[in-house]
Each structure stands twice: as C-alpha cells, then as structure tokens.
Amino acid sequence: MSQYHIPVLLHQTIELLNIDPDGVYFDGTAGGGGHSAAILERIKGGLLISNDRDPQAIAEVMRRLGQGEHNIIVHDEFGNIASTLDRLGIDGVDGVLLDIGVSSHQLDCAERGFSYHNDAPLDMRMASDGPTAADLVAELSWQELAAIFSRFGEEKHSVRIAKAICRERENAPILTTLQLADIIRDAVPAAARRDGHPARKVFQALRIAVNDELGQLERGLEAAFSRLRPNGRLAVITFHSLEDRMVKQAMAEWCKGCTCPPDFPVCVCGKKPSAKLITRKPVEADEAELEINPRSRSAKLRVCERLPD
C-alpha cells in the first residue's frame, strides 16, 4: 500500500459504492490513489476519473496508476465535477467518491505548512495558487480572523487568539507555523493548553479558509449528485463535524418526499424523493483500522443512491 496516504474506510467505501464493472466512476479527491486503485481493480469495460486539486497528489496517482484505457487522471477541484465531465464528454456517472479534508502526505510534508509540529512556511494551500495562511494572518482584521476561528474551528478562544495575532504582527510578520503556534499557545488560558495542542483548531480553521473547503464541498455535493445516473451512488468521507453536518443535511434533503401538512388527505405538492440513504448512520473505522491508521478515528462515511425519475 502506498505510504503517500493511507486510504480510510477503504473496504467499506468500495463495497458501498456497489461498483458496476462497466460503469463510470469519479474519484474527486484521489490523494495517493488508494481508493482509485481499488475502484480500478473492479472496472472491466467501464471508466474511472481520478481527480485532485493538489499537483503532488496528481503526480503520485500518475506514478501509481498512469493513464490507461479505463482511467483518466484530472488536475482540478472536485467542485468543478460538472465542467470536468463536460470537458470529457461524459453526461453521467454511476458513482462518485469524495474523501474530504487534508491527506496524510499533506500533514506529514512539513514544507506544506499544514502542521504545527514542525517549523515551515505558513502556507496550507492544497493547490499551488491563491492566498496562503500567512496572507490571511497578515491582512485580515481581528474580527475577520476571529470569525474564521470560531466558524471553521469552533474555537471558543477565537477573539483572544485573533487579537494576539494582530498585536504580534505589528512587531514582526508571522511567516511560519511555529511562530503562529507559539502566539496561539500564549494567548489561550493555561487550562486550554492541557486539552490537546491549543493550535489545532486554529490551524484547521485557517486551512479550511485558505482552501475554501466548505464552499468546495457545497458545490461538489450538488454537482456530483446532479450527474449521478439512476441507481448511481455518492459516497462522502468527512473528518469533522462541519463537513459531516453538510453531507447529512444534503442527503436528507435529496431523500425528502412529500412536504404537505400531515393533515392533508392526499398529496398536492407532488414532491418525490430523488435519493435513498444507503447508510442510515455514518460508517466509522473499526478497531483493526484504528490500530493501523489512528487518523481514521474521526472519519465518517455516508452514502446515498439516486432514484430513477
């Protein structure tokens, strides 16, 4: 198995995608290619599109799988699935996989700036363009920073941390991960330092903001579901509550049928569900997987299936 990134919930995901050997599948977050490789093993006459926004991930998938008769590798954001499929001349797919969040490689590659454990440029970009985390820390007001920390990191000390950042940047630019981690540590109460690393939630929040992760997820969910063929399945793996809530709510909306008041004798709205849930509750890693890959602890897999019109 590639050590670039260990795919989480691999066997459960592949089983729940219910792969048709002649079907068309879209892996929107190919990462190290683990899920893509497992899908491709089951494809005989069909097609797999392996997509990722990270150029390093694309290089790894190309090394591992290569382009072939039954697979195409695409460098793009998964939120652009509709335009990607249009460009390839594909009108619909039989399955979509979205494995949301940061990969093991991105975390472990210190120079990418995702981790507070090693000193590195404060970057955090999954792609190679756009503002970095250092840009946000340098340019945003304390109110804007506090809003990011609160919304995307659910950090209860967001105001204290944001004000501390703005004070410190007056003295010197905040350019590295350990610079920022030290400012956060000094800004929070002593009790907060005992509850895991005090920088964890802020780093998560900055990463989400830098990469527009929730916007990507919102666009990607709608576009992916719109391109599913009847009986096609959408599988989404999330790693924190903000993402999981969005996926749960989107799938619940697609599965919603009649919205008439319960006292109406007959339905007059005519609304029918467009999907059914395959997983009533999120699938989580078992003890065997947790022992091999502790980072799978927070992973949740939800799957739905598009109903015929």
What does the overall shape look like? globular
Approximately what portion of the residues adopt beta-strand conformation? 5-15%
- How many alpha or pi helices? 14
Strand segment count: 7
Helix amount: 40-55%
Task: Give Rg in angstroms.
Answer: 21 Å
Distance between the termini: 40 Å
Strand order of the largest sheet: 3-2-1-4-5-7-6
* Mean pLDDT reading: 93
Poorly predicted ranges: none
Order of helices and strands: HEHEHEHEHHHHHHHHEHEHE
Major β-sheet profile: 7 strands, mixed
> Structural class of the secondary structure composition?
alpha/beta
Characteristics:
309 residues, alpha/beta
What can you see in these coordinates?
It is a single chain. The protein contains 14 helices and seven strands. With 309 residues, it is of the alpha/beta class. The radius of gyration is 21 Å and the shape is globular. The mean pLDDT is 93.
Furnish the topology, listing elements before pairings.
Elements: H1 10-17, E1 24-27, H2 34-42, E2 47-52, H3 55-64, E3 71-75, H4 81-88, E4 93-99, H5 104-108, H6 133-139, H7 142-153, H8 158-171, H9 177-187, H10 190-193, H11 200-211, H12 213-226, E5 228-238, H13 241-254, E6 275-277, H14 287-292, E7 300-306
Parallel strand pairs: 1-2, 1-4, 2-3, 4-5
Antiparallel strand pairs: 5-7, 6-7
Helix pairs in contact: 7-8, 7-11, 8-9, 12-13
